[in-house]
Amino acid sequence: MDWKTFDDLLSKAGACTVYEDSRAVSGGTMAAMVRVNGVKKLAVAGDAAKFEGEDAGGVKLCDRTVANAAALMETFPYTKPQSHQGHAFTLGLGDRLGVAAPGQLRALAGKDVFPILAQQSIRELTLTGRTFPDVIAAAAFGVFEAGYKGGYGADGDHLKTKEEIKYALDSGCTMITLDCSAHIKDDAAGLTGAELKAAYDALPQDLRAHYESRYGDKDLPLVGRLDAGELMHVALVFSGAVTHAIDCYHYMESIATTPFDFELSIDEARAVTSPAEHLIIAMELKAAGITPVSVAPHFSGEFEKGIEYQGKLSDFVRDLKIHQEIAEKYGYKLSLHSGSDKFSVFSSFSKITGGKMHVKTAGTNWLEAVRVMSKKDPALYRRAQKFALEKYPESSKYYHVSTDPYSIQDIDLLSDAYLPELVDLPASRQLMHISYGVLLAEDWFKGPFYDMLDKNEESYYEGLDHHISRHLRYLL
């Protein structure tokens, strides 16, 4: 079958538009993403037995299901996530809605960036009612629609337990970001003097002996000698996290059937990560035979959701330099979490890391959808913001934000023309940023919102392209 015959058969199914970049042939299978009578489908001809769908006179029209995504990834391997090892700059994009990938990929065209298109935490899955297979399926269909063949990854983000890790790997995730926050003893970070000594002495004797023999009274790389108080502090705060990380990594090795990328997140600790803490963690991992792909320290300053970096850039740069030296010495990249919209730090981060870096963004892809809503369905936006304000105490349990949502001007006094401006003002931007969960749980919102996005797909793709391209201008 040729493409003309394919198109002729499709036309008999109804009003049809083909996404031209998606056209692909593999063996005896011919496929393309299409819209038939306004509904987006995967059209498959020839060898289509693996796909579930309705036969439309020689072309099978398939819904974008997990089962069809599995068939797509088997037939067209470029739609399947893969390890990103060997790529210098990796960008975590994420997609809470499952429709963003084609727009995200526009921004990457012609650029040496490896995207992690599927990037979700268990918290995000819970709040959106999705699963890891759902997330990966959406990315696969988006990659196919865009005709993108450069490879992409899937990140089980901020996972905390072996059960969560197994779920992510079994679902097809190629990256695991391990969040050790439950094993970091933040309460011990502020101890001094006798309290510090008493807490340290309560640790198991073999653990104390291990840290003292390896790091006590020695000239350590890059940080020199630690005094007794510093060593006790590191052992108290981070020894549990290190043990957990090593245990989880070896568990991943035991169950993984394909290569995976391991990122260690210590950015959820309340205190800024010191060079000594980072170094000892790196040395412990090396001693256990583990080289992560990336590590995310807690950098100086505030990295709140959806707004610019807050803090002294000079402090951030000073700390970043020593963290980068440690990362280089032990063979991994630094990772910048909550990287969306932190434009003021991007150039420094790129230059100091030599372009070998991982940057995580995600939530602002949702905000670009909210921006489209503010323009195309102002009535829905108004109701959504009022509801988000009402539910703010619930949403704010999950995210740290500093702006006061109650400072937002009464939306009933604002014109429709002004509503898109609210998506950029810090208070209303952060309010909507953290409210995706409570909104998507409401039938009055979810259905009309997705319908609005579907009808304005091109506007959404253009917004994503513009927003992500702005990030890349400073990072590349």
Describe this structure in words.
The strands form two sheets. This protein has an eight-stranded parallel β-barrel, surrounded by seven helices. The protein has helices spanning 3-11, 66-75, 101-108, 122-128, 132-146, 162-171, 193-201, 205-215, 228-255, 275-287, 313-330, 343-353, 363-376, 378-390, 392-395, 419-422, 426-434, 436-440, 443-455, 457-475; strands at residues 16-18, 24-26, 29-36, 39-46, 54-55, 59-62, 89-92, 114-121, 153-159, 175-179, 261-265, 294-296, 333-336, 357-360. It is globular and about 80 Å long. Among the domains are: 3-63, no CATH class; 180-186 and 213-361, no CATH class; 364-475, no CATH class. It contains 20 helices and 14 strands. By secondary structure, the chain is an alpha/beta fold. Helix 3 runs parallel beside helix 20 and helix 6 (162-171) crosses helix 9 (228-255).
Summarize the structure.
The protein has 476 residues and is an alpha/beta fold. The chain is built from 20 helices and 14 strands. The longest helix has 28 residues.
Tell me the layout of helices and strands.
Elements: H1 3-11, E1 16-18, E2 24-26, E3 29-36, E4 39-46, E5 54-55, E6 59-62, H2 66-75, E7 89-92, H3 101-108, E8 114-121, H4 122-128, H5 132-146, E9 153-159, H6 162-171, E10 175-179, H7 193-201, H8 205-215, H9 228-255, E11 261-265, H10 275-287, E12 294-296, H11 313-330, E13 333-336, H12 343-353, E14 357-360, H13 363-376, H14 378-390, H15 392-395, H16 419-422, H17 426-434, H18 436-440, H19 443-455, H20 457-475
